Amino acid sequence: MAHTQGAYYVPHGSHWPIIGSIGLFSTVIGAANLFNGGSGITSTPLMFLGLAIIIFMMFGWFGTVIRESVSGTYNNQVDVSFRMGMMWFIFSEVMFFAAFFGALFYARMYSVPWIGGEGHGGLTNYFLWQGYTPTWPTNGPGNIGGNFETIPAWHLPLVNTLLLLSSGVTITFAHHALRAGYRRALLVWLAATIALGAAFLYFQATEYMEAYTHLNLTLHSGVYGSTFFMLTG
């Protein structure tokens, strides 16, 4: 049962985390099975079922938080806790992508030259990959996934970058409108943000279809392909 200890609101137990865990587990298992050649008859429905559960969980959990806030149970200390939680979430996202950028940098600057016979790791070429010429981007000395082409940086990637930056601007305007009590402006800027997000998803899907169907750049295209889709997905 919800109660107050001192000046800090302590909510009652919530079922939303376990529901979110079930949704995330179903999504990951379905997607992993589908991407690794599993049966689409079971993998695809499982993946979309997991996504539906996650969306349901988000609406329910956010609604609970909003109702608690409107009821007046939150104070400044709870507000600080929410802000710190968001800060740690953003920090974790930065570290997550930093790890993959680090992997890409390591492969580009160290691993590829070493298996090509360069640097102090050059013996790798002598013992394992004789005749391999280091190139970048690469799918490795085993030509994993076949030859592929890269996506030009100044085409769809540039458009998507501009869309992301623009959505950051519009949501900031929406936040200021909310704080100022301008409901109409809030709705306009939120709608603009949603439209930009939808456009981003459309162009991202278009980019991936182009990569798979015309450039042969897939998740199976060695270290470059796998890190590319992790960093842009």
Biggest beta sheet summary: 2 strands, antiparallel
Number of strands: 2
CATH fold-level name of the domain at 1-74: Helix Hairpins
Identify low-pLDDT runs: none
The class by helix and strand makeup works out as mainly alpha
- Terminal CA distance reads 40 Å
CA radius of gyration is 23 Å
The oligomeric status of these chains comes to single chain
In CATH terms, what is the architecture of the domain at 1-74? Orthogonal Bundle
User: What is the overall number of helices?
Assistant: 7
Proportion of residues in helical segments: 55-70%
The CATH class name of the domain at 1-74 reads Mainly Alpha
Arithmetic mean pLDDT: 87
- Portion in beta strands: under 5%
Largest beta sheet: what is the strand line-up?
Answer: 1-2
Give a written overview of the molecule:
- By secondary structure, the protein is mostly helical.
- It has a domain at 1-74: Helix Hairpins (Orthogonal Bundle).
- It is 70% helix and 3% strand.
- It has helices spanning 16-35, 40-70, 76-115, 123-127, 156-180, 183-213, 222-232; strands at 3-5, 8-10.
- The chain has a two-stranded antiparallel ribbon with strand order 1-2.
- A hairpin with a 2-residue loop joins strand 1 (3-5) and strand 2 (8-10).
- Helix 5 (156-180) runs antiparallel to helix 6.
- The model has no long low-confidence stretch (mean pLDDT 87).
Task: Give the gist of this structure.
With 233 residues, this protein is an all-alpha fold. The protein contains seven helices and two strands; from the N terminus they run ββααααααα.
